Amino acid sequence: MKYVFLLLTAISIMGFPTNSSAQGKPKPVYFYAWGGNPAVNDYIRWAAKELRPQGIQLQHVKVADIAEVVKQLVDGQSNADLIWINGENFHALKQADRLMPILTELNIKERLNDQLSWQSDFGEPVADLEVPWGVGQFYLLTCNTCVAGDHISAAELLEYAAEHPGRITYPKPPEFHGTTFLKSLLLSLSEQDEAFLKPVDAVDAEKLTAPLWTYLDELQPLLWQGGENYPSSAAQQLNWFANKQLDVAPSFNPNEVKTLVNQGRVPAGTKRITLGDAAITNSHYLAIPKSSGHPQAAKQVITFFLSEAAQRKKADLSGWGDPTVLDIALPDTPAMLPVAAEFHVSWQAYLEQQWQQRYPR
Amino acid sequence: MISRMVRVAIALLWLILPLGVVLWQSTTASFEGALSDAFRALSGSAWLTFAVTLITSLIVLFGALGLARGKRLSATWTSFIAVPHVAFAIGLLWLVSPSGWLVRIVDALLPMWQGPLQSSWLSSKSAFTLMVALVLKELPFLILMAQANVQQMPVLRWQQQAQALGYSRRRFWWLIVVPALLRRIRLPLYIIAIYTVSVVDIPLLVGPNAPALLAQAVFELNWQFNSNTQGLVHWGSLLLVLVAIVTLVVLRVVEWVLQRWLSSLAASGKRTPVAQTTGKRAGLPWFWAGLAVIIFISLLLQSVQQSWFYPSLWPQGWQWSRWLAEWPYIAPLLYNTWILAVLSATLAWLSAVALLEVQAQRQQHQLHVGWLAMLMVPQLVLVLGWQQTIGPDSGLIGLLWSHTVFCFPYAYLTLHGAYHAYPRRWLWQARSLGYGPWAAWFKILVPMLKRPLALAWAMAFSISVAQYLPTQWLAPVTHPTLTTEAVSIASGGDWRLGSVYALAQWASVWIVFMLALWGTRARN
């Protein structure tokens, strides 16, 4: 028994920081956001520190996949005040009518960079329900001596894989880097067909995607581990790329080619290439669920995240390095990649299901 | 009367209530979608889970039967068993992955060879890597359990008889001791098997994903939001129970076959006249000591490196400030982890001691499977049922209760042998000298059993620290712990940061075990 008391005393002596504050209790904002990237997590920690004087306690709830929260929101059991979403997750929440209209009220529209076509999220009108936070562009990281040039077409990739079997792979769909890898191949194979901007039901999806499956059947045995296993995440693939087990790793952040070298995650001499002629480009957004217990505080957080200072800090290449959505100049950041429009949201589930039916699970 | 109330209360709290909730939940669960669809989607995972579990359990079983004969693992070894799985897996992965430390050493020694390894055997994600991690982690547990049981058998007397009849030591071990031992380690073996069927955090880090293990597949399906996946989740957890039952049946059959075969060998009367070697395996403890130390060093180096790319043997850059920078974020998690572990370990420990005392008074010395029931059901199925009843973020009470449910059977199992071996005449004598029942218990029994008592508490503590699924599904927002954070960071791929959290987790458990051992060391 005395050991129990000993331990209890030990804990109480350690004296952990308590959250008591002089200006009364800070309002908590439960921010559900993907927690798989330490640089992003560090940025949110910084934001939490900056927001504390405003009486807001920003709490990052790290999720492996934001779909987890979408499900809870649709089921009506979630304490989320603020969520980080785009694409199919936004689509599902919009359909279920779970999001609060905020964009007009926050009055930031005119400060946003309209060239980013943020008004449409995977072909779905934003409709006042979410605020753009940053920009994603899909491309591959590779080493200087691996792939030549600044882009690689689907056909060239297959050639490369045939010459270097086991050096190429992609995260397993439905991981979004993996699904976007498939989309990029589709664009490259179809020579930028505009049909992918339309819903799956509106076009002949089977015919449009047939070249992809033929292509993948050829590519699959040339992949890492003969296509019998896949990285679970882009981060995992990144580690293997950094340690010379693979020749490419996917990224959705055009500046990551710089930030990852700065962070010591990949060796110097890493460069970026687009898969196909252009990079699939989309925005990622912040939204407030209708069920939020602290909507006012959550709006304050969004206003802060969209401030010039916060956006500059977010684009800082020593940290996250996520491109800004504001119409401001950031001299040191690498140029954006050539833009390819994101597919309509319905393709996400379609491609994932088709892929899962064809390849090992 | 009181003894019955104690048993009923413990059974209600830690068995009937948690199981009842799940059963009630499963009657209301919607099994949408056809069974055939679910089977097609999950059968690959189910077969893989079955194969991994069976192979792991059999290797662990035969490993333990073979190795339990060797040098006795000291109590210090118990602390190795308590290395949290997640910390162990993170460290092991760095050691054996195709661009890991071992391969780098080979690369440095063989300049002709161009690494890194392309093999899929010890790849960072494969069924094989998963099995290596599980076997290395589970084997010491079963060896300890086996050795504890061998101690309770009159092995020496049997051995003298066998030697007089001309049996070699090895033959004696396999023909006489093993048949008796097999029955006694059945339960721990089943616990290992069920753990393997339903473990989620380790496969998330090192397991295959095409297909994934069944528990991991269901875990991931459970956060998809379209309606047909919910049916799939329910079918999946049903399938998980089925896999668990089939595995146990197969293990039982293996035991039966083994018993028959060994007894037919014994009946043949064959013996090797040559005196065998002593059978001491002094190397065994050293293997695990070495492994633990290397994994610890790996984690430590990882936690302070800035860049360390293949094929460097040593970090190319350092970042000592990482620990300081992370500390403000580790501290609240440490606090959460410790509060939860101390409370649930104490509850579990008190329940286990009360139950054992009641059983000892009634002279029920058998280890009853019923009390270990919660370890015989796949954890995922249980936690899923609780989550659907009390919601995805229910606060500390539900979480504490869920941890205690899993800590209690381990505390009971750990303490059972020592408690029932305790000669109770000491208590009677104390009573005859005028001590009250409580005084006798505290002044006579506790000092004599202080080490097993302390170790049982430490074991319960370590079980709580290592819990992933209950914490992740019942209170991820209000009560994140070191384990949930370590898994989240490690699956994000930053080993440096992941190692910091893994070490904090390991240290928590290690400190408690060291305190338990040091505080109860024998004087003179």
Automatic annotation (TrEMBL), chain A:
<keyword id="KW-0732">Signal</keyword>
<protein>
    <submittedName>
        <fullName>ABC-type uncharacterized transport system, periplasmic component</fullName>
    </submittedName>
</protein>
<dbReference type="InterPro" id="IPR027020">
    <property type="entry name" value="YnjB"/>
</dbReference>
<feature type="signal peptide">
    <location>
        <begin position="1"/>
        <end position="22"/>
    </location>
</feature>
<dbReference type="InterPro" id="IPR006059">
    <property type="entry name" value="SBP"/>
</dbReference>
<dbReference type="Pfam" id="PF13416">
    <property type="entry name" value="SBP_bac_8"/>
</dbReference>
From TrEMBL, chain B:
<feature type="transmembrane region" description="Helical">
    <location>
        <begin position="368"/>
        <end position="387"/>
    </location>
</feature>
<feature type="transmembrane region" description="Helical">
    <location>
        <begin position="399"/>
        <end position="422"/>
    </location>
</feature>
<feature type="transmembrane region" description="Helical">
    <location>
        <begin position="187"/>
        <end position="206"/>
    </location>
</feature>
<feature type="transmembrane region" description="Helical">
    <location>
        <begin position="286"/>
        <end position="309"/>
    </location>
</feature>
<keyword id="KW-0472">Membrane</keyword>
<dbReference type="InterPro" id="IPR035906">
    <property type="entry name" value="MetI-like_sf"/>
</dbReference>
<feature type="transmembrane region" description="Helical">
    <location>
        <begin position="329"/>
        <end position="356"/>
    </location>
</feature>
<feature type="domain" description="ABC transmembrane type-1">
    <location>
        <begin position="42"/>
        <end position="251"/>
    </location>
</feature>
<keyword id="KW-0812">Transmembrane</keyword>
<feature type="transmembrane region" description="Helical">
    <location>
        <begin position="453"/>
        <end position="475"/>
    </location>
</feature>
<dbReference type="InterPro" id="IPR000515">
    <property type="entry name" value="MetI-like"/>
</dbReference>
<feature type="transmembrane region" description="Helical">
    <location>
        <begin position="47"/>
        <end position="68"/>
    </location>
</feature>
<feature type="transmembrane region" description="Helical">
    <location>
        <begin position="495"/>
        <end position="518"/>
    </location>
</feature>
<feature type="transmembrane region" description="Helical">
    <location>
        <begin position="80"/>
        <end position="106"/>
    </location>
</feature>
<keyword id="KW-1003">Cell membrane</keyword>
<protein>
    <submittedName>
        <fullName>ABC-type uncharacterized transport system, permease component</fullName>
    </submittedName>
</protein>
<feature type="domain" description="ABC transmembrane type-1">
    <location>
        <begin position="334"/>
        <end position="516"/>
    </location>
</feature>
<keyword id="KW-0813">Transport</keyword>
<feature type="transmembrane region" description="Helical">
    <location>
        <begin position="126"/>
        <end position="146"/>
    </location>
</feature>
<keyword id="KW-1133">Transmembrane helix</keyword>
<feature type="transmembrane region" description="Helical">
    <location>
        <begin position="232"/>
        <end position="254"/>
    </location>
</feature>
